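A quick aside before the break. I want you to see a complete sequence-to-structure record at least once, exactly as it would be stored in a machine-readable document. Don't worry about memorizing anything.
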Amino acid sequence: MKQQGFTLAELLIALAILGVIATFTVPKVLQSSTAHGFNAKAKETASAISALLLSKKNTGVINGNSSLALVMDEFQYVRKVTDGATQIDHVNSLGSLTCDASCPCYFLHNGAALWMCDSQNFAGTGANNAFFYILDPDGRYGGSTSGVSKSVCFVQYYQGRLTTMGELEGSMNNNWGTYWQQPTQTPEWFSWN
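That is the input. The structure line, written in tokens, reads:
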């Protein structure tokens, strides 16, 4: 009677093949999972800020020249950092942002950090009047000018439209100046879909 089964060599070959497959697939799965988490944090935060801003605008608290500090006073965050030493990621192609008294970082419950300058405002109520803020999904500086941890720059128009710096149609104006589309600065992990 002939015994059925696998030899040790066959098992080792099968394990080696599985190891090679895992070497190529596991990092991609983990990176995809991280990207989806970052995307969810970014959209959740942007939506909450947009809703709060709209509410304050409709009640007359916010106008075209109001400081954004009025929005953040009621936003839910864990801590506000203004030490001038803490850094978070900037957008693609740029290094870091420093959290200081004029542009603090708001660390959120979901682990993200929001960089927003208190003195920034819409500088008017027209269709192109907007302000921007930058969200670092992991809340820390990764030490490079590119990569999965880079931040996304959101643009909130006074009229209500919300977009990213990479998807501007035309320009945006605020009390800091005029800005145009910079598509390379939107990180690879962010999508509105």
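Two observations worth writing down. The first strand starts at residue 79 and ends at 81. The helical segments are 8-58, 69-72. We'll return to this after the break.
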